[in-house]
Specification:
The complex is a heterodimer of chains A (114) and B (114). By secondary structure, chain A is mainly beta. Chain A has no helices and twelve strands. The chains are: A mainly beta (114), B mainly beta (114).
Chain lengths: 114, 114
């Protein structure tokens, strides 16, 4: 079974600083997508950033960027200039091979401290 | 990307009863996914709802406990049957978008069984 592993159950960062959340995954596919979702206390799942595996360039969305290492099957999320509103659970996700079913990591609880 | 309206947002139910959760999508979609998120945990896929055919259940989930309807390409319901306190969770529906936009989620239903 394909898996997504987030090894950091909890992290904290000071406001305005940078934090990196790690994610590794397992797949036998060559072309696929990877996602980071944010879930604040409102429980709404919000897409933060996505990466297409065939693109070598790391995806960037404003303060959010990824470090995608295809050979290592690593997909970390970097949050720059952290804001209090970034406090949330962050889930790494990957569609199960050959289907559109999303498989999620266990999540990282990020707290941004003032 | 699609917009999903999920109802109810929360409910408190007596054990032994059933609750039906609805998801309405503002566009036609082939597949809809139903997830369970137990307290403090990640999302686990319950089943895939396809229009015009039986839902496909993941290991550990059965139709008698979680019957799903998909009468058309914009609507689906998930029923949690014969509830016990262990069913207390957040239930979310999701649809896959074009890869460029990722997956869209409903706002979730927080179920408490007493």
């Amino acid at each position: 079974a394909q898996t997504v592993t987030q090894s950091q159950p909890e992290m904290s960062v000071q406001e305005a600083e940078t934090v990196t959340l790690s994610c590794t995954y397992d797949t036998s596919e060559n072309n696929y997508y990877l996602f980071w979702y944010k879930q604040p206390p409102s429980r709404q799942m919000i897409l933060v950033i996505r990466q297409e595996a065939y693109k070598q360039q790391n995806a960037t969305e404003n303060r959010f960027s990824v470090n995608f290492q295809k050979a290592a099957k690593s997909f970390s999320l970097k949050i720059s200039d952290s804001q209090l509103g970034d406090t949330a659970m962050y889930f790494c996700a990957h569609p199960q091979g050959g289907s559109e079913k999303l498989v999620f990591g266990k999540g990282t609880k990020l707290t941004v401290n003032p | 990307s699609a917009v999903i309206s999920q109802k109810p947002s929360r409910d408190i139910c007596q054990r032994g009863t059933s609750l039906t959760i609805q998801c309405q999508v503002d566009s036609q979609v082939t597949m809809m996914f139903w997830y369970r998120q137990q307290p403090g945990q990640s999302l686990t896929l319950i089943a895939t709802a396809n229009q015009g055919s039986e839902a496909t259940y993941e290991s550990g989930f059965v139709i008698d406990k979680f019957p799903i309807s998909r009468p058309n390409l914009t609507f689906s319901t998930l029923t949690v049957s014969n509830m016990s306190p262990e069913d207390s969770s957040i239930y979310l529906c999701s649809v896959p978008g074009q890869a460029l936009y990722g997956y869209t989620f409903g706002s979730g239903t927080r179920l408490t069984v007493v």
